[in-house]
Design a protein that fits this description.
This protein is α/β, with parallel strands linked by helices. It folds into two domains: 261 residues, Aldehyde Dehydrogenase, Chain A, domain 1; 180 residues, Aldehyde Dehydrogenase, Chain A, domain 2, CATH 3.40.309. It contains 16 helices and 23 strands. The strands form six sheets. A seven-stranded mixed beta sheet has the order 15-16-17-14-13-19-20, sandwiched between helices. Strand 9, helix 7 and strand 10 form a beta-alpha-beta unit. The protein is globular. The N and C termini lie far apart (76 Å). It binds nicotinamide-adenine-dinucleotide. The site of nicotinamide-adenine-dinucleotide has 30 residues, from helix 8 and helix 9.
């Protein structure tokens, strides 16, 4: 059985303990990896702190060259990474290939960026510029749904700006991150990137560590609140990419046959374990029955199986805890609404739940109020658009949302009223690297991707310079 090691100060190290990694399609342990204790966490932060002065002073062209070389090796290992991702995460191999491809594209995007000095004012008396300085040690904490790409929204952005990094992946999907360590060890000086693994027990020590300057966190809203409390004593910089309960609103001018496949894909991709998945679907009453019928057809046609098997369209839920949580939502939905597709776990090994469609469910049901994070979609009936918008916004979350219409003006009118960080019209999950992504309300704050995402890894420094010698009066 392969044993994966952590990366601390350029060395691959065993942990104080080990962690079993389970394939969610088989429920079997297929690898083990090192698990850190507090001492190793402190060593990782110390290594990143020690590497910071030299790395931050390394010319950006040199940092870029190293990231480009790392990316070239990553490309050569694309499929190897994808296979490991499917094994630890469960998603179908073509989707894993797509995620790894997207992650490499992120590295390439960030490697090409810089934040040149901005001239804010320049006249005969004065010159005022804004520069961007790195922050220091960044803690990058990731969840288990997209362990590879979510890491690459953080690490290359931090590195190109001159920061050093301590990574902590989710305990159920640590392997692709540890494998990324091999690329870091080859292409970056010791200590610039360090990777530790925990069992959900070291996050607090990392986020409160006095030598960590910034926390870039992706995970649930509940953990996000703990992270925010934990960074407060040291006033660290913080980005929080948290949970969502995104609504899709289908306007009454769209044929349900046309909208259903896109909506269905947006709700069930990655077995529904997408922060920006469609988690509530609002359909006009005139089309409600037709839309439900279309969704049932799509659900029943979906091939749910081991992600390694050719032809699989949906894999298992990633871990046992989430699997049981999703089954709990289904049980509640059975009481409160009508399950018209799926609704039973598959009778086999693995955390398999087929796409489940629920209709006639009230707005106060758990499946509608909470983030299900699984392949279970409530379909809700609305009378008029105002009603749909009000209900879509009646949530503590504000990550994304979609509007579907043949009339772009109408769609835009609705999109502008949705309280979230991203709203798509007639498309979904389009996340190009140069477009900033941020949550509203309890879905978090601070951007990732784009120039805004890069700026989050820097401190702005204004230099306000008089052109007159000291003591001379301004003209
Ligand atoms: P989680 O919050 O349980 O865990 C996320 C990470 O935080 C893991 O690495 C975990 O080990 C770590 N962690 C746990 N306790 C911690 C603590 N006290 N301090 C610091 N770190 C701690 O989330 P999850 O279950 O792994 O992921 C699913 C959630 O992530 C969903 O809510 C989903 O919507 C959200 N998510 C958000 C985005 C986004 O970009 N907004 C993207 C993907 C997932």
């Amino acid at each position: 059985m392969t044993q994966y090691k952590m990366l601390i100060n350029g060395k691959f190290v065993d942990g104080a303990a080990t962690l079993d990694v389970v394939n969610p399609a088989t429920e079997e342990v297929f690898a083990t990896c090192a698990r850190a204790d507090l001492n190793q966490l402190n060593e990782a932060v110390a290594a990143a702190k020690a590497a910071f002065p030299a790395w931050s002073k390394t010319p950006i062209a040199e940092r870029r060259k190293r990231l480009e070389a790392l990316s070239a090796d990553f490309k050569a290992m694309h499929e190897e990474f994808a296979r490991l991702l499917t094994e630890e995460q469960g998603k179908p191999l073509p989707h894993a290939m797509y995620e790894v491809g997207g992650a490499i594209a992120m590295i390439d995007y960030f490697a090409a960026q810089e934040l040149p000095e901005k001239v804010l004012r320049d006249n005969e008396n004065e010159r005022i510029v804004q520069q961007r300085a790195p922050l220091g040690v960044v803690a990058a904490i990731t969840p288990w749904n997209f362990p590879v790409i979510l890491l690459m929204l953080k690490v290359p952005a931090a590195l190109i700006m001159g920061n050093t990094v301590v990574i902590k992946p989710a305990p159920t999907t640590p392997l692709t991150t540890l494998k990324f360590g091999e690329l870091c060890a080859k292409h970056l000086p010791p200590g610039v990137v360090n990777i530790i693994v925990d069992q959900n027990d070291l996050g607090g020590a990392l986020t409160s560590h006095p030598d960590v300057a910034k926390v870039a966190f992706t995970g649930s809203t509940e953990t996000g609140k703990k992270v925010m409390a934990s960074v407060s004593s040291t006033l660290k910089r913080l980005t929080l990419e948290l949970g969502g309960n995104d609504a899709a609103i289908v306007l009454d001018d769209v044929d349900p046959k046309v909208a259903a496949p896109q909506v269905f894909a947006g709700a069930t991709m990655n077995a529904g374990q997408v922060c920006l998945a469609i988690k509530r679907l609002y359909v006009h009453e005139s089309q409600y029955d037709a839309m439900c019928e279309e969704l049932v057809k799509l659900a029943n046609e979906t091939i749910v199986d081991d992600g390694m098997k050719q032809g699989t369209q949906m894999g298992p839920v990633q871990n046992k805890q989430q699997y049981e949580k999703v089954l709990g939502y289904i049980e509640d939905a059975r009481q409160r609404g009508k399950i018209i597709a799926g609704g039973e776990k598959l009778n086999r090994k693995g955390y398999f739940i087929p796409p489940t469609i629920v209709r006639d469910i009230p707005d106060d049901a758990r499946l509608v109020r909470e983030e299900q994070f699984g392949p279970v979609l409530p379909v809700l009936r609305y009378k008029d658009v105002d009603d749909a918008v009000a209900r879509a916004n009646d949530t503590e979350y504000g990550l994304g949302g979609t509007v579907w219409s043949n009339n772009l003006d109408r769609a835009l009118g609705v999109a502008q009223r949705i309280e979230s960080g991203t709203v798509w019209i007639n498309k979904h999950l389009d996340l190009p690297p140069d477009i900033p992504f941020a949550g509203a309300k309890k879905s978090g704050f601070g951007s990732e991707m784009g120039v805004e995402g890069l700026e989050e890894f820097t401190q702005a420094r204004v230099i306000n310079m008089s052109k007159a010698p000291p003591g001379a009066a301004h003209a």
